[in-house]
Amino acid sequence: MGSGGVTGAKRNEWPAATQQRRLPVAQGAITFRHMRFPYRVEHDVPLFLAPMAGVSESPFRLLCRRHGADAVVSEFISSVGVARGIERVLADGRFDPAERPYGIQLYGAEPGTMARAAELVTELFQPDFVDINFGCPVKKVVRNNGGSGCLRDLTLVQAIIRAVRAATDRPVTVKIRSGWDDAQRDPVTIALRCQDAGAQALTLHARTRTQLFTGSANWDEIAQVVERLDIPVIGNGDVRRADDVLAMRRHTGCAGVMVARGSFGNPWIFGQGRDLLEGKVRRPDPSLEERFATVLDHARLAVACQGDNRKTALEFRKHLGWYTRGLPGAALLRERLFRIQSMADAEAVLTRFLERGVVEAAA
């Protein structure tokens, strides 16, 4: 199960690890100890879309499933809002059956409220698993001791896990960081305490809360947790390209890989990462036509879910910015896309841009 040869050095100090992140062609299939997940997944090493506020909404989850994500998780949801029956909060738990396996992620700092929320989402939505958020670094969450704020009190962490386990018949998983800050950085102890309390799988984002998203994720810490736990460990942090999927698996021996910001405007990372894990030649990056077809597919999913209105268009602008990064003429294209008032406007802008490219290529 372990990766062997792990030291205390940070990953970005390892030249070999850096070289692994630049693998352009097929590698031999790799074999580690197989870990059984508490819910059905298609592959031995599943790839997960991370729960991200304002991003991991149903349309994007569906898109990533179509492109090879093995499992998806809701945006993090307030246990207090669920327990109070607030409709706009409950709406964040709804999903399309095509998203399965699907987990609902809850956050909160009161075991009784977390248990009630887990009971309710189980009854209302029947997710494949319930995930507990002990990793969110956002101030509005941690100021109430939720998310990664809980990591300052491991007795509370265990009480929450036990309460949620007792309240649902769904598998209960957790997502943690390496600690609150460098002084309290001890991911192995945190992970063991989670396992002892009943967590059935664990995701480690190998940064502390005070790091937020700066610096590098310490993949060595993921490897150390993998060595010590008897439940599946999912690696998270700095998986920005398909090559990083393979590099993390090789470096840590993790049972699964979770992709967060690397999926922004890039749902193809899942299929390409799967190719590399299976020792195949990585499928090519999408052509401009394929890229725009995917953008429009995503836009239509958003319209079906949220309606074709100004609010949907405004919220979709961030995705348009990510999809068009690095394209020739991207600055002008984004300028026009950021002025859209409807998804129909977006489709018209993209179509004109694509037609112009075809004409210029033929000239």
Which geometry do the CA atoms define? globular
The CATH architecture of the largest domain can be named as Alpha-Beta Barrel
CATH structural class of the largest domain = Alpha Beta
Rg is 21 Å
Q: Unreliable stretches, pLDDT < 50, 5 or more residues? A: 1-30, 358-363
N-to-C span = 57 Å
- Biggest sheet, strands in spatial order? 1-2-4-5-6-7-8-9
- The CATH topology of the largest domain is given as TIM Barrel
- Whole-number count of domains: 2
Structural class: alpha/beta
Task: Give the CATH H-level superfamily of the largest domain.
Answer: Aldolase class I
Order of helices and strands: HEHEEHHEHEHHEHEHEHEHHHHH
Largest sheet data: 8 strands, parallel, barrel
Number of strands: 9
Beta-strand share of residues: 5-15%
Helix content, binned percent: 40-55%
Q: How many helix segments?
A: 15
Report on the architecture of this protein:
The chain has 15 helices and 9 strands. The radius of gyration is 21 Å and the shape is globular. The chain has an 8-stranded parallel barrel, surrounded by 7 helices. Strand 4, helix 5 (111-125) and strand 5 form a beta-alpha-beta unit. The protein is of the alpha/beta class and 363 residues long. The protein folds into 2 domains: 12-277, Aldolase class I (TIM Barrel), CATH 3.20.20.70; 288-362.
